[in-house]
Specification:
This protein is α/β, with parallel strands linked by helices and 409 residues long. Helices cover 44% and strands 16% of the residues. α2 packs across α3 (105-115) and α7 (232-245) packs parallel to α13 (353-365).
Length: 409
């Protein structure tokens, strides 16, 4: 089968294209499909117009649209033009199926244009966030009008396809509620060997600890976050409680918030007298993350119980499991796909700071940490490999093509 994937944006700074679109495309190519990927790199302009082959996958980054005007109109024009070019390429290439990632912005517009054309290919829509009014838009500072546009795109997109892939069970259920006759697959984010080929996971990390001024007797606890997952007030409460109960605890913050939330957390820690127990790294290049992970004893990945958190599927769980870091999380959404309490990590009883702190205490005093980490790594590499997760994908594609053909007939 000839399949064209339409990515939602470029390879940087966001992860969806590199860590969801491309691994799924490689997996499809491995089982014999011809696969091309269209990338609209409006947020990664250095790659405009580039083309290359990634193994058996052909990658085309769209050319930069030209426009002279205001920033707002220019941004809207850019997205529209990129969508038009993507749709035109699909018409020119005539694939059997188009797999669209995210029903919003460029990819959502491209899906709309493709769906309206005669003799269109089958369309599979990938959902990896609840995009609209009640979901991810709650985390952003979008204008109200733009939120409503995304809400409309999302709802219409789910009605203009022949099948779904979904990163979370909640999104799969939502797709079924909107289009009950469309086949759908729950495909969480998985382990991609290509992403980790330069990683060397180990449990030494002594040089990294020394660079932070942290001794071997300290318990270094990682906070790996974008600050959308868990509230600042909750983070501060968790850190203060752990600091009181475990004088040897030190905290390493890997990540940053879109709105500078890490600066607010640092200010709170200064007021609490804990500044000397905190280290803030911001975002490291992906190749440098193993050094940080090798230095820590535990990682905190709690999720507040929100629609956005129940819908998404963070690949950071895979990072930590592969690196052999015990993870503490909460029983929200796809966290439970990755972390099995007491087996591949620790799951708090609920998302409250009190429950998270209790889970941390349990992890700090538990025996058999090396066995737990080995099980977590094995689960990531074997059970959650993209090859295994995408085994049913060819069947979904065949169902989508049959459904599209029956509608045309």
């Amino acid at each position: 089968m000839y399949v064209v994937y339409i990515a939602p944006f470029g390879f940087a700074p966001k992860n969806t294209t590199g860590r969801r679109v491309m691994p799924m495309a490689r997996a499809a190519a491995t089982v014999g499909h011809r696969v091309r990927v269209i990338v609209p790199p409006y947020d990664d302009p250095a790659t405009y117009g580039r083309e290359w082959e990634d193994g058996d996958v052909e990658v085309t980054c769209l050319p930069r649209p030209r426009f002279d005007g205001t920033a707002f109109i220019g941004a809207a024009w850019t997205q529209w033009r990129l969508a038009r070019v993507a749709a035109d390429l699909v018409e020119q290439w005539r694939p059997d199926l188009v797999h669209v990632f995210k029903p919003k912005a460029v990819s959502g517009l491209a899906q709309m244009l493709i769906a309206r054309r005669r003799d269109r290919p089958a369309i599979v829509l990938d959902l990896d966030d609840w995009e609209g009014r009640d979901g991810w838009s709650q985390n952003e500072d979008y204008a109200r009008a733009l939120v409503e546009v995304f809400e409309l795109q999302e709802r219409l997109g789910m009605r203009r396809c022949d099948a779904f892939t979904a990163a979370s069970r909640l999104l799969a259920e939502r797709a079924g509620a909107v289009a009950s006759d469309c086949p759908r697959l729950h495909i969480p984010n998985g382990f991609d060997p290509a992403a980790y080929e330069n990683w060397a996971p180990n449990r030494a990390g002594s040089a990294f600890r020394r660079s932070l001024g942290i001794g071997s007797d300290a318990k270094l606890i990682l906070i790996y976050t974008r600050f959308f997952d868990y509230g600042l007030e909750e983070w501060a409460q968790v850190i203060r409680e752990i600091a009181v109960r475990s004088p040897a605890a030190r905290f390493l913050v890997l990540g940053a918030g879109k709105f500078g939330q890490e600066r607010d957390l640092a200010a709170d820690m200064r007021i609490s007298g804990l500044a000397d127990r905190m280290s803030f790294l911001g975002w490291l290049p992906f190749a440098d993350i193993p050094s940080a992970l090798a230095a820590v004893d535990l990682a905190l990945m709690p999720l507040a119980d929100t629609v956005a958190n129940r819908s998404k599927c963070s690949p950071r769980y895979i990072d930590l499991m592969y690196a052999g870091v015990p993870v503490i999380t909460t029983p929200v959404g796809e966290a439970l796909t990755f972390i099995v309490d007491g087996d591949t990590g620790y799951v708090a009883a609920d998302p409250s700071p009190v429950a998270v702190v209790a889970a941390v205490e349990r992890a700090l005093t538990a025996e058999g940490a090396s066995d737990l980490c080995a099980k977590a790594r094995a689960r990531a590499v074997d059970e959650l490999s993209w090859e295994r997760l995408t085994e049913p994908l060819s069947g979904l594609y065949e169902s989508a093509v049959s459904r599209a053909a029956s509608q045309v007939a």
